From TrEMBL:
GO terms for molecular function: oxidoreductase activity. Transmembrane segments: none annotated. Residues 50-278 form the ER-bound oxygenase mpaB/mpaB'/Rubber oxygenase catalytic domain. The lineage of its organism: Bacteria, Bacillati, Actinomycetota, Actinomycetes, Mycobacteriales. It comes from Mycolicibacterium litorale. InterPro entries: MPAB/Lcp_cat_dom (IPR018713). It comes from the Bacteria. Pfam families: MPAB_Lcp_cat (PF09995). This is ER-bound oxygenase mpaB/mpaB'/Rubber oxygenase catalytic domain-containing protein.
């Protein structure tokens, strides 16, 4: 009995710490508002986007998305020149996670406000890449690359490490759901099936290449994130799992290893243990939030 209470206390503490890292100091208040405010939502409770975005596999999918997105030189130039990802990486993560939560689970009015805010930021982000090519964050073509790299990563991570992977209908439904958000952001005709998603990824490949900024970002994300010593080993597993989900063609430009036998065995097993552990500690916070909503 005592051991059970102690284990529960450890779980609660880890859950709060992890939630605070990804959601920020305003996380509990934001969660209460997102899930507790009445009103229509963009997505019904049974939609695939809710299943995917609520799963612990998003942790490995998110890191994979950042690595894949960095391969577009114009998208990476915008991040390198206008994003403080080195000085405030957790702040960037928290803003992204809040945006995903609001648009997936929040009231429709709040989701639209979140989109309008992002579009306003995009209008101010423009410049010239190191090769002399001008870019604008609001360019629908760049927005589409960021979108498809993200949802391809989230979907793959969920298929490999999600608690309840989707069937083909569900995977197509997920891509269609995310198209709703992409269109609101400014993407023109985003993919709406898994097959279309694969085709779009392939269509962008001629534009993708290695850049100093992309390699530098990969080193920072994988090797030198600002983390306390106890968190570095689990993060190492997270990093290895995310890299293992990248296709071979995406790794060479980032100088990342490709070891299929090891990745299919030890890395895959380690990834499952890690994601299961994240799911275990995060469930406590979700249950607490559900209880608070029910008590209102």
């Amino acid at each position: 009995m005592v051991l059970t209470r102690e284990l529960g206390a450890v779980r609660d503490g880890l859950g709060r710490a992890l939630f605070g890292l990804v959601a920020g100091p305003d996380g509990p208040d934001n969660r209460a508002r997102i899930h507790g405010t009445p009103g229509p939502r963009w997505f019904a409770e049974d939609r695939p986007i809710r299943r995917v975005h609520a799963d612990a596999s998003m942790f490995v999918g998110g890191l994979r998305a950042l690595l894949l997105q960095s391969l577009h030189p114009l998208a990476m130039a915008g991040v390198a020149e206008h994003s403080d990802y080195r000085g405030d990486p957790w702040g960037r993560l928290q803003r992204t996670s809040t945006f995903l939560a609001v648009t997936t689970f929040g009231p429709a009015a709040d989701a639209q406000r979140a989109v309008d805010k992002v579009r306003g930021i995009h209008r101010r982000v423009r410049g010239v890449a190191p090769d002399g090519t001008p870019y604008e964050a609001g360019d629908p073509h760049l927005l589409e690359w960021v979108h498809i790299a993200e949802i391809d990563s989230f979907l793959l991570a969920h298929q490999l490490y999600g608690a309840h992977p989707l069937d083909q209908v569900g995977r197509d439904g997920y891509v269609a759901d995310t198209a709703r958000v992409a269109t609101a952001i400014g993407v023109v005709n985003p993919p709406r099936t898994e097959g279309e998603l694969r085709e779009r990824i392939e269509a962008y490949r001629p534009e993708l290449r290695s850049t100093a900024a992309a390699r530098d970002a990969a080193r920072f994300l994988l090797l030198t994130p600002p983390l306390p010593l106890p968190a570095r080993a689990p993060y190492g597993v997270l990093a290895a799992t995310s890299v293992a989900m990248l296709p071979a063609w995406a790794r060479k430009p980032l100088l990342l290893p490709y070891l299929p036998p090891l990745e299919a065995t030890a890395v895959r097993l380690s990834g499952r243990v890690l994601v299961s552990g994240i799911r275990w500690v995060m469930t406590a916070g979700q249950q607490e939030a559900s209880a608070q909503r029910a008590a209102r």
